[in-house]
Amino acid sequence: MLVRATGGTFHGPGLHSEVLPGGALSDPAERLRIDPARYYFRTTPVFETGAETYAWLNGIICIGSGYLVEGGIAYKVSRVL
Fold this sequence. Notes:
Order of helices and strands: EEEEE
Strand order of the largest sheet: 3-4-5
Strand content: 35-45%
Low-confidence stretches: none
Number of strands: 5
Radius of gyration: 14 Å
């Protein structure tokens, strides 16, 4: 199942912003028919920016995991390198 990012926000040390819509389409109701014990969310976000202030994002490596929240999915993302 692919989940579309419909928007949101993120906050962390040195960075906070808005998530823009995008990604792959899926039926949001489908996630409610899957037993949460049978799946997991993992992500490796990639950042690309031309803004000098955020240029440090272009060279970092991150990993993350997701979990269901009311009305969507939340992710905990950590910088590895």
